[in-house]
Specification:
The complex is a heterodimer.
Chain A (H helix, E strand, L loop, with lengths): L4 H33 L6 H10 L3 H12 L4 H12 L2 H9 L6 H9 L3 H7 E3 L2 E2 L1 H25 L11 H13 L6 H17 L7 H6 L11
Chain B lengths: L1 H25 L6 H8 L1 H15 E2 L2 E2 L3 H14 L4 H17 L4
Antiparallel strand pairs in B: 1-2
Helix pairs in contact in B: 4-5
The chains are: A mainly alpha, B mainly alpha.
């Protein structure tokens, strides 16, 4: 591919920025693989195919946990799709910055995950499509590779919670949040979003609190 | 086993459609200014919700455990302008140490 220098720069910038997150995502993928390959899980090959096609960590984890906890397939599917419903507004937010025809847009849209979306954000609702692709490809590779390692490596790796891995996720989301907090409205939306989510956790199935938190963005309509 | 493949197919197709809906159907049409103001606030709202639930939720319960300590350590590291990977590592280490000490 012959790419103009600024495009190559943004692709690389997206990829490089994604590396620390990709390490965490890869480790998360390992735990998804371990969970899926264990007794009562969905099995090794389905887990790998799911990581490659669905490419949405929290939703896959939700489906795998429902299955491992003895839940039925319909509950597992609903839990996963509910968690992924946030990609509808997220997809709308990046739509007008994506390049090319319908097929190219479809491919780019599949590389959107929370982390690549945050990396592609230039603030004020603007997004860089090349940074999105650079970050998305790195994160996809890490997620699939992590899943494969988890499926094959299994029990040898131990409990992710004992390594503090579960604590790395809120920290990484916080690191993504901080650059988004320019301006009073953004800070108000963040506080409101977190509040909505926390209040709903005890009363709604996993995934709903996150979707509901998107409602905090409506304060963008309030006149100052 | 066929149950697993049904889940993989349903979740995969559903997620692809959700992700593609905006970019493929909307195209490059700019959003109305009001909608744009709302969309601009989606990132802080959703990311803050992800921080809160990842730190406090355990299934449908709110629990205060070592994750919150890790998050506090991460906030300090971020205030000191530590790189992202270090922030994640500090949070994980703080939580792991707290668990070794028998907290949360």
């Amino acid at each position: 591919m012959d790419l103009a220098p600024p495009i190559r720069f943004e692709l690389r910038r997206g990829a490089v920025t994604a590396i620390p997150l990709a390490i965490a995502v890869g480790l998360f993928g390992v735990s998804f693989g371990v969970l899926s390959a264990s007794t009562g899980g969905m099995g090794a090959l389905p887990a790998i195919v799911m990581s490659a096609t669905t490419f949405a960590g929290s939703a896959q984890f939700a489906a795998a946990s429902v299955l491992a906890g003895g839940g039925g397939p319909v509950t597992a599917i609903l839990a996963a799709l509910l968690l992924n419903a946030r990609y509808l507004p997220i997809g709308v937010s990046v739509a007008r910055f994506m390049l090319g025809g319908r097929v190219a847009r479809f491919v780019q849209s599949q590389l959107v995950v929370d982390e690549s979306w945050a990396i592609a954000s230039r603030g004020g609702g603007e997004f860089d499509p090349h940074r999105l692709v650079g970050a998305g490809v790195v994160l996809w590779c890490a997620w699939v590779a992590g899943t494969v390692i988890g499926v094959l490596g299994g029990e040898a790796l131990g409990d992710p919670a004992a390594l503090g891995l579960d604590a790395a996720f809120p920290a990484l989301f916080l690191a993504l949040l901080v650059p988004q907090l320019g301006g009073r409205r953004a800070r108000a939306a963040a506080a409101l979003g977190a509040g909505i989510a926390v209040v709903l956790v005890p009363f709604t199935p996993a995934g709903v609190p996150i979707i509901a938190a998107a409602g905090a963005a409506v304060i963008g309509l309030v006149r100052r | 086993m066929s149950e697993s493949w049904a889940i993989v197919l349903a979740v995969g197709a559903g997620t692809m459609a959700i992700k593609a809906a905006g970019p493929v159907l909307l195209g490059s049409r700019p959003l109305p200014a009001q909608v744009q103001r709302v969309v601009a606030l989606l990132a802080p709202a959703l990311l803050a919700a992800l921080v809160a639930t990842a730190a406090l939720a355990s299934g449908q319960q709110l629990v205060i455990d070592a994750r919150l300590l890790g998050l506090a350590a991460a906030a300090v590291a971020l205030a000191l302008r530590a790189p992202v990977l270090l922030v994640g590592a500090i949070a994980a280490a703080a939580a792991a140490v707290a668990r070794l000490a028998g907290l949360g």
